[in-house]
């Protein structure tokens, strides 16, 4: 981490609360008035070229102060605007990476247990960014999850992995500067309840497996797959994010913690206390997300503890034995007195939407296996018949190329979007946003 951490940087956090708005505007004014030709960010009438002549994606950026009170979290995403430097004078040439003054804070997006995420904009190149600000306690220093996340992400370059642009360190905070992606899979599914369009599920699932195949080839386990950690761009690009629990997996196997992965997406071997897991850990989570996208609700939800979760899994895939899963009785949490004998059920009977798409039930069955060694790999899953309807060019794409660079490939409108569009009599957006 030392080689990428830029120390002695001054980090100024512009909060979005109304009680600091005056300070925020004054600070931004200070940035733009240092050059005699600079303009105030909110002075729309004297922008060198008319605001309405700007590319539509940047109209949002110029008007950020004006429209904040009219909307919640923004759904915009820049489209590589051209000649931005001629239009917005607050952008500076020659600003370095690794300094807080190179980024403007626009709004707070969310807060977690050890970090707060803000939407921001880079004064280096004018691109929207996500600023993950991690507070450092004097007695504890940098959280180990932050060290792990930064050290892993700096070496990952893939279209389906969130891109880490920059790292800023001060005495009080550590800030990760990520590419800005406007929503996540959990929010997308909440906007489209009842299950997603199978075609879109196929595109999302291909991208998820593509990202997993990449990190698994780098001997990295994500260890925390869930819809909230899968970002979705306005085009429909899916990106793995939040690598705080990720680990570099050496060969041969090492022993790891069993306290990983959100309970609903945790495989039975880890629930039973296994610590010698490998890439099969992520495959189970991806299988659960696959079912959730099609079915519209989590595959194994509504439980409060490990034993209830295990029982819910056994009711679908069947209670394991030494014959079906060699070594299961040796796992720390395997207790016969708590076991209820269940027979395996056809997945199509439990999750009926799996049976509506060719190959969906078989793919889910190959991912949701009790015995970890029997789960399909991400690389093999990409070749499954479920994806046969997708263009074959997807398998030849370079790692950094999006699947949507293949001509003719795009998300389709979800059923709810078509219904709303029909009722309003509206036409599709100029940006072809599918929701």
TrEMBL record:
Residues 103-387 form the Protein kinase domain. It comes from Hymenochirus boettgeri (Congo dwarf clawed frog). GO terms for molecular function: ATP binding; cyclin binding; cyclin-dependent protein serine/threonine kinase activity. ATP binds at residue 132. This is Cyclin-dependent kinase 14. It catalyses: L-threonyl-[protein] + ATP = O-phospho-L-threonyl-[protein] + ADP + H(+); L-seryl-[protein] + ATP = O-phospho-L-seryl-[protein] + ADP + H(+). One of its GO terms (cellular component) is cytosol. The keyword Zinc does not apply. GO terms for biological process: cell division; Wnt signaling pathway. InterPro entries: CDK, Kinase-like_dom_sf, Prot_kinase_dom, Protein_kinase_ATP_BS, Ser/Thr_kinase_AS.
């Amino acid at each position: 981490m030392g080689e990428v951490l830029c120390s002695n940087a001054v980090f100024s956090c512009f909060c979005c609360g109304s009680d600091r708005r005056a300070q925020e505007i004054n600070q931004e004014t200070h940035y733009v008035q240092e050059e005699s030709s600079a303009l105030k960010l909110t002075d729309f009438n004297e922008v060198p070229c008319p605001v309405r002549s700007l590319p539509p994606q940047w109209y949002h950026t110029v008007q950020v102060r004006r429209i904040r009170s009219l909307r919640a979290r923004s759904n915009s995403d820049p489209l590589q605007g051209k000649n931005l430097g001629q239009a917005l004078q607050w952008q500076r040439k020659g600003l370095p990476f690794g300094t807080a003054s190179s980024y403007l804070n626009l709004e707070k997006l969310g807060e977690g247990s050890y970090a707060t995420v803000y939407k921001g904009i880079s004064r280096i190149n004018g691109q929207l960014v996500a600023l993950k600000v991690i507070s450092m306690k004097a007695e504890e220093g940098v959280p180990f999850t932050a060290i792990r996340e930064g050290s892993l992400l700096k070496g990952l370059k893939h279209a389906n992995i969130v891109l880490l642009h920059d790292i800023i360190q001060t005495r009080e905070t550590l800030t990760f500067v990520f590419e800005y992606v406007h929503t996540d899979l959990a929010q997308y599914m909440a906007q489209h309840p009842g299950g997603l369009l199978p075609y879109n599920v196929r595109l999302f699932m291909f991208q998820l497996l593509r990202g997993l195949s990449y990190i698994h080839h780098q001997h990295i386990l994500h260890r925390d797959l869930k819809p909230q950690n899968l970002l979705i761009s306005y085009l429909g690009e899916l990106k793995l994010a939040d690598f705080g629990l990720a680990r570099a997996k050496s060969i041969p196997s090492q022993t790891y913690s069993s306290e990983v992965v959100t309970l609903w997406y945790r495989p039975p071997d880890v629930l039973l206390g296994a610590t010698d897991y490998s890439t099969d850990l992520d495959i189970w989570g991806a299988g659960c997300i696959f079912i959730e996208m099609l079915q519209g609700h989590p595959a194994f939800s509504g439980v409060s503890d490990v034993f209830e979760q295990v029982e819910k899994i056994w009711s679908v895939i069947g209670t394991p034995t030494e014959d079906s899963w060699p070594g299961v009785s040796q796992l720390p949490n395997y207790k016969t007195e708590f076991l209820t004998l269940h027979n395996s059920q056809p997945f199509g009977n439990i999750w009926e939407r799996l049976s509506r798409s060719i190959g969906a039930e078989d793919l889910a069955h190959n991912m949701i296996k009790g015995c970890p060694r029997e789960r399909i790999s991400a690389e093999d899953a990409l070749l499954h018949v479920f994806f046969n309807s997708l263009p074959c060019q997807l398998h030849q794409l370079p790692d950094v190329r999006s699947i949507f660079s293949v001509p003719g490939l795009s998300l389709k409108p979800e059923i709810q979007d078509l219904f709303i569009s029909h009722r309003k009599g509206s036409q599709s957006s100029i940006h072809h946003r599918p929701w």
